[in-house]
Amino acid sequence: MWFETTKLAWRAISRNMLRSFLTVLGVVIGVAAVIAMVTVGNGTTAKVRDELSRLGTNTLFVRPGQWGPGRASTEAKRFTDDDVTAIRDQVSGLRAVAPVNRGTVTVIAGGANRSTGVIGTTSDYLVAQDWELALGRDFLPNEDRGSQAACIIGETTRRELFGAASPVGQSIRVSNVACPVVGVLAVKGQSGMGDDQDDTVIMPLKLHQRRIGGTTTISSIILSAQEGVSTAKVQSDVESLLRERRRIAIGRDDDFSVNDMSQIAAAMTGTTVLLTGLLGAVAAVSLLVGGIGIMNIMLVSVTERTREIGIRLAIGALENQVLTQFLVEAVMLSIFGGVTGIVTGLALAYGVVSYLQVPFVASPTIILLAFVFSAAIGMIFGYFPARRAAQLNPIDALRHE
Amino acid sequence: MAAPLITFRQVSKVYGRGEATIRALDRIDLTITQGEFVSIMGPSGSGKSTAMNIIGALDLPSSGEYIFQGIPTSGFDRAQLTLLRRHMLGFVFQGFNLLARTSAVENVELPLVYRGMDHTERRRRAMAALEQVGLRGREGHTTQELSGGQQQRVAIARAIVTDPAVLLADEPTGNLDTKTSGEIMDLITRLNRDNGITVIMVTHEEDIAAYARRLLRFVDGHLVSDEIQASEAAHVV
Known about the structure:
The structure holds two protein chains of two kinds.
Chain A: H1 2-15, H2 17-54, E1 59-64, H3 81-90, E2 94-109, E3 112-121, H4 124-128, E4 133-136, H5 141-144, E5 151-153, H6 155-162, E6 171-174, E7 177-185, E8 200-204, H7 205-213, E9 220-225, H8 231-245, E10 256-260, H9 261-304, H10 306-314, H11 319-356, H12 364-390, H13 394-399
Parallel strand pairs in A: 3-8, 5-7
Antiparallel strand pairs in A: 1-9, 1-10, 2-3, 2-6, 2-9, 4-7, 5-8, 6-7
Chain B: E1 4-15, E2 22-33, E3 37-41, H1 48-55, E4 63-68, E5 71-72, H2 78-88, E6 89-92, H3 104-114, H4 119-132, H5 148-160, E7 166-170, H6 178-195, E8 198-202, H7 206-209, E9 214-219, E10 222-228, H8 232-235
Helix pairs in contact in B: 3-4, 3-5, 4-5, 5-6
């Protein structure tokens, strides 16, 4: 019986292939959109996570304010040199404590100039970031103290300013500061957020504060825990030390945050997940429209085949048998649309992720969900036309022209 | 005398209400026994089609009782009427009513599909029915590839494939020329005589009605005459 019903449904669908295809186009587009969006979203998330985790799990980031999507950190008090010293002296198990200030300024060398992110920090920065030097050396103690100007540049900056020539020993102007280049960083490539990490200039914090930032405070601190030391322990030690130093009353929230990479990754990917959900909702609406399309054409089909339904009822088809026949037809149509949509969506996603250079992460869950959902759409929107067919009066149906 | 197969007891059918009331059948009493060949005649609006629909379990009387093989049908719901049609009745229509783009054998198999019969048995029975109506070798032809007479033969095969007690024919020759009509009527007569199928046929042509042994005439919802015809033998091949 099921085989017969399926065969009949297939015959009805294939009898008018073009119409069947146009009928399910809504479902195809809806499913394809969902699959493509979710797949690209997953790929981007995976890439961000991967990049961030490569930065090391033993690294902690200390920032003023609570950090996360939708939370501004600009209000909170920045850190001081004494905070950095206190962390270095009072928290055990740390490998590096690097204060970091950032700014974007124009960098000039000879005739070439370029707008670049300039980081003010200490020699601990390269340790904390596990960043090797390709050429030259790290900052000397007197440079760290700020009594002598010195710069380390990233590979992109070097290429743009010096071309093929070696920059070590040459001087560049960072904003209005003349600064000899003492080292070149090893290539690091794109970050998880898509920006070029090699487009950078690093200078001693003191110099940066005085000449670039015009400040004596520090905007963030990067900590690196020693091998085998629990970052959770370090995190809570730093938190209690800073609460004390910033005089935060018991019961009040921190006005700073200490996060490891996994927490930052979660916050960053949270945005992606939100976006994926939103796009998914849009796609769900198009699936609804697709379902109405199926219902519409099934109603037309029932009217067209009134006489056939009459014959079937007259020769002994029960209401349920006619209902099942039309339901199977609707479900088959929508599954046909769903599968086409899944294939189209995956192909689309493959193209997009290749272009964005993010990994292709096809989620079996979402594919299965799309399949089940499209079948359900056929079931729901096919039920009304199928019931109408089943409840036809055989006498009237047989007379129908 | 054989047991009554079909009994009408004071059967009336009323359509509409108030001023627009139409009494399509007015208190009809009628008995048809197993193995009869009955023609029903009458002008349009006489109630012959309504009577046929009630006999065919496609419609229920407004009042009175339709008794099939001793079982009153007045309390039947749609499903019970369907099962009565499925197991006891075979239908042949004026317009053939075969499924389009479907082969002859598949058309004949259709009532068996709804009975849930397995494929092999179904095919065997359908082929036997096609053989009986003289269409052996044409089982693979689709409806469009068959002439009118052949289509009606397929329809008859579909009606008899379930071994029904009654074959109901509604103007079976209405769409056919005289020669083909004669062939179809000979086939129906043979099924009645050789297979013992009770045949009830609606027609408006006297020479077609003459094939039947018994002739009922309806006028304005009344059964006005019920006679046994003597001329049957003359037509049998």
